[in-house]
């Protein structure tokens, strides 16, 4: 079972330490999104990088529309990966929707995780009464329709908005290329699963210490969603980054590295 799971997710291991540190990418990207952060931790940790099924260099044939039609399927993937590597008490560093995936995995098998550190996560992206997730249902439908009509156009439209560093256009171009390289049909389905997900009711069951790293200006996750996590996760720390946009690990890696070190030392 070990080799098929590792191949399925194109797992890459590095680092000289023994303490496992797993990095999980968000929607539209792959494990290479962490390349500016990883070197700072290789001397002290056992680094685990992987691609979600359907992303990057994962085995596309392993994508299952039923299993991966919900975040629970991705959480099962994460737990199978941990089992294949024999990981216990690992720290998961997760970006965007991978934060919610990690929370679901930690509910199911809390012994696997010492700590969760989520960068720009959201419990629900859609506005719902007093809850402000940032998007109306029509916004999500428009995004999905654009992806279906023209994947490349969608990538070019979204990348600069979510990067939110207009004085550094090379960052948006980097992200655009990552979005455009994704398999269009799977990427569109992953987008629907991501933006229609809602784990608010399950947050009180996340018993693992959780740190939320966030930017004040984030076109994907408003401050109201971050504050909601802070109120409803039982063991939560909110950590504001001196950065902007939804991809601070690309735009402000030094700030993210400093925050990760601080949160790793807090547990």
From TrEMBL:
Q: Where is the AB hydrolase-1 domain?
A: 21-259
Keyword Protein biosynthesis belongs to the record: no
Coiled-coil spans are none
Q: What molecular function terms (GO) are annotated for this protein? A: hydrolase activity
Matching entries from Gene3D superfamilies are given as: alpha/beta hydrolase
Alphabetical keyword list = Hydrolase
Q: Which PANTHER family match?
A: ESTERASE-RELATED
Hey, which family's this protein in? Belongs to the AB hydrolase superfamily.
Instruction: Name it.
Output: Alpha/beta hydrolase
